[in-house]
Specification:
- The protein is mostly helical.
- It is built from 18 helices and no strands.
- α2 (35-55) packs antiparallel against α18.
- The longest helix is centred in the C-terminal third of the chain and has 39 residues, at 343-381.
- The radius of gyration is 21 Å and the shape is globular.
- Mean pLDDT is 89; it is low at 1-20.
Length: 382
């Protein structure tokens, strides 16, 4: 059962802003699919990939790619939860967790199997570290990286810390949202979430200035990074372009100065190399500055430069981005161990192999799991 955009807006008790035209889209009428977000996924992946290929810390802000993934995840899951509540006046946590498990876990475990295989073949391979691999399989690898001494994981599998952050968030946020929906208006919900974002900033400051916690904690810890996802949730609740929230119209009318301001803030977060700033305020500023850019990417889908995000091959790479993110460093580090002729060639070979692996995972695992998710959702909603 589907819900159209206008139906969702009315059921939420919010009318489409009268002074701003509905957002441009190349998706079918009434669909909640946002093509440009797949393009954003692709860009985010390449930020991470090129940083790992040797440009991180000097040219490419790889960590920023992860922050984009975080905000995008928060926006998407909240939009889906909000639409479900608008349609049914309730949210099934069972359905939500089942959909997330089928979406996230199969590609993850296939990638872990690939990493284990690459660790086991050939002479001089490092072997499979039991504790680190178990932590990754159980979605607690970020805290394993923080507290284990030494923290040993399979080569290239360190990127799974961010997946652990998202999984922890997916476990807790829907419970909070289900509690808030029947009790508070959208604006009060957003205020509660913004207060939590402020709390995350305060906690990072306490970790850094009082406890002198390492960068690993403020960067990897769910307790220190959940606001990077939560800003996406606030965006989905308060200024959702898909559901035509009134505040979205406010943003669109002010895009001429909001976009340059957002870009300037992001550039400032890249250029400021002060350790205290980077471990505390950086993530807050990036989360807020990304929201106008996301609104523009969704609202102006038929306009350049956003149109680039909607190109077929860019969107396809975005569809593959989850599996690409999981496997790229595993493959890259395996190739680098045996072939160090040229960094450019090594990077190109790594991307080609990762693309092949991600494509196989998409067609053989993700799409069948997607069909199962849809069938189960329909069955559970009947």
């Amino acid at each position: 059962m589907t819900v159209t955009l206008n139906q969702a807006a009315v059921l939420e008790g919010q009318e489409t802003g009268p002074s701003v035209q509905p957002h441009e889209t190349i998706a079918p009428p009434g669909s909640l699919y946002i093509p440009s977000l797949d393009g954003i996924r692709a860009i985010s992946f390449f930020l991470v990939f090129f940083a790992h290929a040797g440009l991180g810390g000097t040219i490419i802000p790889g960590g920023f790619g992860v922050s984009i993934f975080f905000l995008l995840s928060g926006f998407l899951i909240t939009t889906l939860l909000r639409t479900e509540f608008a349609r049914y006046r309730q949210i099934s946590l069972r359905n939500f967790y089942l959909r997330r498990a089928l979406r996230i876990l199969p590609p993850l475990y296939v990638t872990l199997a690939l990493a284990m295989l690459l660790c086991s073949i050939g002479k001089g391979q490092p072997g499979i570290p039991f504790a680190g691999t178990l932590a990754q399989a159980l979605q607690v690898s970020n805290y394993y990286e923080i507290y284990a001494v030494p923290a040993v994981t399979m080569p290239g599998s360190g990127v799974l810390w961010s997946l652990a952050v998202e999984e922890h968030f997916y476990l807790m946020f829907p419970i909070l949202y289900v509690w808030m929906c029947p009790r508070f208006s959208a604006y009060r919900q957003a205020l509660i979430l913004l207060a939590l974002c402020a709390g995350a900033l305060v906690w990072r400051c306490v970790l850094h200035f009082h406890f002198h916690a390492s960068l690993v904690h403020t960067y990897y810890g769910t307790d220190a990074r959940f606001d990077s996802i939560l800003f996406g949730c606030v965006f989905a609740i308060l200024a959702n372009p898909v559901l035509h929230d009134p505040l979205h119209s406010w943003f669109v009318r002010r895009m001429k100065w909001l976009l340059p301001l957002s870009v300037a803030v992001l550039l400032g977060t890249f250029l400021d190399r002060n350790e205290s700033f980077r471990e505390t305020l950086r993530y807050t500023l990036q989360g807020m500055a990304l929201i106008p850019l996301f609104i523009a990417a969704i609202h102006y889908q038929k306009s350049w430069p956003v149109l680039f995000l909607n190109l077929t091959f860019v969107r396809f790479l975005g569809v593959l981005s989850y599996s690409l993110y999981l496997c790229h460093l595993v493959i890259m580090e395996s190739i680098q161990r045996v072939w160090t002729v040229n960094p450019v060639l090594t990077g190109a070979a790594s991307f080609a192999c990762a693309l092949c692996f991600a494509t196989l995972v998409h067609y053989l695992i993700e799409r069948p799991c997607g069909r199962i998710r849809k069938r189960l959702s329909r069955a559970l909603n009947e």
